[in-house]
Sequence to fold (505 residues):
Amino acid sequence: MKHVFTRACIAAVVGASLLASAAMAQSPRPIAPDKARVIEFWTKERRAAAIPRDLVIDERGLGYLRHRSGFLQPHGHDTPAVTRGSDPTPSPFAKGGGGGSGSGTSGGDTTPPSIADMVPSASAAIGSSATFSATVTDDSGVKSVNILVRKGTSREQSFSATKSASDDTWSVDLQGFSDGAWSWRIKATDNARVTGYSESVAFTVNTSSATGGGGGTDGVVENDPWSFGGPVQTAAGRIYFYMPANPKGTRWSGYVCSGTVATDRTSGRSVIITAAHCVYDDVNKAFATNVMFIPNQAGTSAQGTDRDCANDPIGCWVPSAGVVDQNWTTRTFPDNIPWDYAFYVVSDSGAHINATTNGEIVDGALDAAAGSMSIQFDAPVTTGTGAFTHALGYSYSDDPNFMYCAQDLSTQGQWNWWLGSCGLSGGASGGPWVQPMGTNDSGAPTGDGPIISVNSWGYTTSPGMAGPKLSGTSAQCLFTAAKSAARDTVLAVSNPSNCASSTSP
Fold:
């Protein structure tokens, strides 16, 4: 089955104005008008508002989209997330989407402060010390913010946060954490004496975790910045895209995932491997629009997430097509987790702006500018030393760092690979799993090796990351379809008739 959208349809979605002529002139060959409109679409405000497309499953088997603040939005159903302990019942309608409940009144004001962008985010891993921060705002002004922290089910400890002089960020530096499972939340009071609480956010502490390739004493790395460079550094990047916020498609939201340029040995195009939930919205049944790929965004010359393609070392690229398995499109997460792999296609001409290699403007293919990594469609190793696997991605809570986790590969049920200690946070979805990772003479990772899966989903109550199996599935056939899919006239193609999955739950 094919879904075909004309170029005119794409243009209607992304708007009509072109990039400034000064930016256009930096490329030897002008970027195509429809691609230019996508890049201009991603303004500073839209990038800042993009939500990590972070899918998680609770203990009841229900799927949720986890927001930056830790708020769990029901995905394909209307059942609220489970609240635990003595925490106030969070309201999904609180300002900023951060949850929370209010108490106290003054005059007609009964709305508690808005709480968002909590760091550490859900499932993050920290060491013995960390900075806890959040954006807290209120129309009447914020009077006080307290960070409430506890280990397991022990009694909460409260610490006063301080407001930044430049924005609405409140933070406090804490130290003395011990290994184990922790949680934290925020208590905020406004000038009208209305108090609200955020949802409780779970995180883990590992004081023995190293910042190098070896990790802690058992070799496990839960969530560390990738500092080893290599092909994965330049081939992997952030993917920005829009998806509908309701079934009628009258409201849309911006999202962010990760992806990696794959070695395709095909002229005229490059192919990016990512997660299917970063290409097709399985709830509202629509393909992503306004898709933009930024390889090696960790190399930005800016202080954080880029607002300008000129600050990215390899520029910005706009795909022309996407390919997903039909089983992903006809089912809803988590019933479609075996098929959470997909590909974006990028034309060799007119698809980028400000792309450089060694300081020289690039006119041509994405894989020539960013490099690429091979995909392995044979089964990976799950026993012995060969099972050690790296998962990488752009975790939103660690912006702008490129993050990774690493440990021995295991399985989660019949349909997924599993890294049980992985603490990558939202935004890492679609990032590559590499096995084996190359090493140099000193044993440090080289950033090179075959991709055996991508970051897919996790649980609401514990760390860990699942990845779809590329072996014994339709993944290789979809990759072949991506290498031959029509460019510029096709927005997306679901599973072609010759790519029937070889496995089915």
Remarks:
- The first strand starts at residue 51 and ends at 52.
